[in-house]
Amino acid sequence: MIKIPYEQIIERIKKEANISEEDINGKIDQKMKQLSGLISKEGAAHIVANELGIKLFDSFSGKLQIKNILVGLRSVETVGKVLQVYELREFTTNDRQGKVASLVIGDESGTIRIVMWGSQADNIKNINKDMTIKVIGGYVKDNNGNIELHLNERSQVILNPEGETVKDVKQFTAERKTIDKLTEKDSVVEILGTIVQIFDPRFFEICPECNKRVKNVEGAFSCQVHNNVEPDFSYVLNLIVDDGTENIRTVFFRDSMEKLINSNKEKILAYKDNPDKFEEVKTELLGNIVKINGRVKKNLFFDRIEIVANDVSLNPNPDEEIKRLDEEVKKVESN
Fold first, then answer.
1. Mean pLDDT of 169-176
2. Taking the alpha carbons of 263, 266, 272, 275 in that order, is the dihedral positive or negative?
């Protein structure tokens, strides 16, 4: 199922119907009331767009700009400039061995993470920062709210494709905010604070082929894509950060958790059977000042906002922080 972000639907309606966002939200609220809460806000927005004669999917074919790459799309083709390259990783699950590598590319419309599996991962050795690449035959997944373009054996990666250029890359830099100023509309933010509480890591079963969560059905683990599988495990760590204005729960999934505690998958999975060993990690982390880059998400169950971490630094540069503080003071004084 293709998922268009709610904000993109609103922007498309505003642009093509030439009506205000306030009027659009009114129509969406009215549609939700008509359907007695049996439809989500996104679903109501789809209906409103259709009633206004706006086709939301007509631009999602052929070579796509990154902003038009949506969860659920398959056979995706796109071109971008390499912004960041991560090292190849090898893994073993039961009797199966595999490889995975990733990078971040960008174009004039946005950025996206590309994840390469199997033999595709070997391409990472030939990819350098600022290189232009073309991807053909990718499929799009949601990784904890982040859109990723995945490549398998049938996909293609073309380095420095002839006739393809990427001009100014639109990069979304994180805005530094204090915790008390965060809202659920903040997509990319940066905070600086002290770790004041750490929870035990949680582990959950995933499909070794596609990394999606699997369900335990009558003693067997089932993946929606690959049916019955012998599951692998992933993990998540929650902690509380305080910056003096407020505190907030921050969520570290797999890669960001590994970076936070400077560990790897093998060592982290050992805590699953020996949770007491993790107390040493808690002791080392408590009281540390960290810089966290991530997105704000509303936890509907607890009715609170949280940060899902994309990146973390355990040793923020003090000179940079002093310089930033001086600039903020000057701005206040000038006003």
1. 75
2. negative
Please, are residues 221 and 229 in contact by the beta-carbon 8 Å criterion? Answer: yes
Tell me which CATH homologous superfamily contains domain 175-334: Nucleic acid-binding proteins (2.40.50.140)
Which residue, chain included where needed, has tokens 């439809």? 39
Q: Which among 293, 85, 302 is positioned nearest to 186, based on CA atoms?
A: 293
Question: Per-residue b/e over 315-334, b at no fewer than 16 CB within 10 Å?
Answer: eeeeeeeeeeeeeeeeeeee
Asked if 66-159 and 175-334 have one fold, the answer is yes
In the chain, domain spans: 6-51, 66-159, 175-334
Q: Which two tokens stand for residue 9?
A: 């639907």
User: What whole-number percentage of the chain has pLDDT above 70?
Assistant: 91
Right CATH for 66-159 from 2.40.50.140, 2.60.40.1180, 3.40.630.10, 2.60.40.10:
2.40.50.140
Q: b/e per residue, 30-44, with b = 16+ CB within 10 A?
A: ebbeeeeeebeeeeb
Rounded Cα gap, residues 125 and 87, in angstroms: 8
Token reading at 166: 């990427």
Q: What is the rounded distance in angstroms from the CA atom of residue 316 to the CA atom of residue 24?
A: 43
Question: Rounded mean pLDDT of the chain?
Answer: 85
Match 């355990």 to its residue by tokens. 314
Task: Return the closest-CA partner of residue 84 out of 147, 131, 148, 141.
Answer: 131
DSSP string, 145-211: TEEEEEE-TT-EEEES-TT----S----PPEE--GGG--TT-SSEEEEEEEEEEPPPEEEEE-TTT-
pTM: 0.60
> Residue 321 is which amino acid?
E
Give the Cβ contact number of residue 134 at 10 Å: 19
What pLDDT, on the 0 to 100 scale, is given for residue 174?
A: 75
